[in-house]
Amino acid sequence: MLQVRVHGPDDVRVDEVAPPDPGPDDAVVRVAACGICGSDLSYIRLGGMAGPAPEPLCLGHEMAGVVHWVGDQVRSVSVGDRVVVEPGNEQLGRIGGGGPQGGLTPELLVRHADAGLLHAVPDQVPLGVAAFAEPLAVGMHAAEQAEVQPGDGVAVFGCGPVGLAAIASLVDQGHERVVAIDPSRTRRRLASGLGAQAALDPNDDDVWSALSDLHGTTPFMFGPTPATRSFIEASGSPQVLTDILERGRVGGRLSVVALHYRPVPTSFLLVLMKEFTIRGSMEYPERFADAIDLLARRDLSALVTDRVPIDHFDRALATLRESKECGKVLVTMNGDLADR
């Protein structure tokens, strides 16, 4: 069967590998669809991970599919169940993030199937949409880390899948003053469709003046700042981090969910003077299935803009690398299973 694996820097291949060899407490999932994301691009560029990882490295951590086989000791799932596969953690091992398995394959071995990593998908959610649960969970946690209160103005910088997921989560919670900032027309359109108060183009719009107009201003000793209370950094731009600290308000909050591999110069004098809170956001809410619940409540299918079969993985990779006019890019396996 096929498996997408990284063999070295910028060396990613769709390999022929042996089928799963499960044990009595394992399950095998026929993968309908698996997303690819910025972290996958990093693994490809680096030729693996910064820390210890199998060689070659299996990719794929945003998966949904149908349980195809269960061991005789498994009690929590049955053959035929529609599931999202949570990629795991340090205790249980990871899927697609340094573990021995990866979701970019037609048949995925899930060890310790009763450990809580297989989550039921409601009937009304197609598996090709359910595969968005993992990035949705990442965006939900980024919104949690921003500690948005009722009435707060929020600015989300970067409207790739995670930024859009954060917007979807905030709007679902009833927040009406969420502003999206992204140079991509497609991503701004998607943000507006989710219910963003405004969608700004940082190349054409004066973002900070616009935030003052939308959210009002608040005093600071060097002059008024936008009253925007919370910021979510999902763009990966070092300049955005600098701008938020320089232009943000006293008592502002920043949730950093984008990957910043290089150090970013930071004015801790401004952090001190503004009593600014900076929090990282890594992975998911305490309950991963909250993301699946949100997919059942709201139709987020528009966020999945590209679907490419695994035997054309290079096309999916090119879309993610070369175009910002996309939302979530999915790789499909097993024919039309993603539509079910």
Strand content: 25-35%
Structural class by sheet pairing and helices: alpha/beta
H/I helix tally:
10
3D shape: elongated
Radius of gyration: 20 Å
- Number of domain modules: 2
Determine the mean pLDDT. Answer: 95
Largest sheet: 7 strands, mixed
Helix content: 25-40%
Count of strand segments:
20
Oligomeric assembly:
single chain
CATH class of the largest domain: Alpha Beta
The CATH superfamily label of the largest domain reads: Medium-chain alcohol dehydrogenases, catalytic domain
- The string of secondary-structure elements, in order, is EEEHEEEEEEEHHEHEHEHEEEHEHEHEHE
CATH architecture of the largest domain: Alpha-Beta Complex
The CATH topology of the largest domain is Quinone Oxidoreductase, Chain A, domain 1
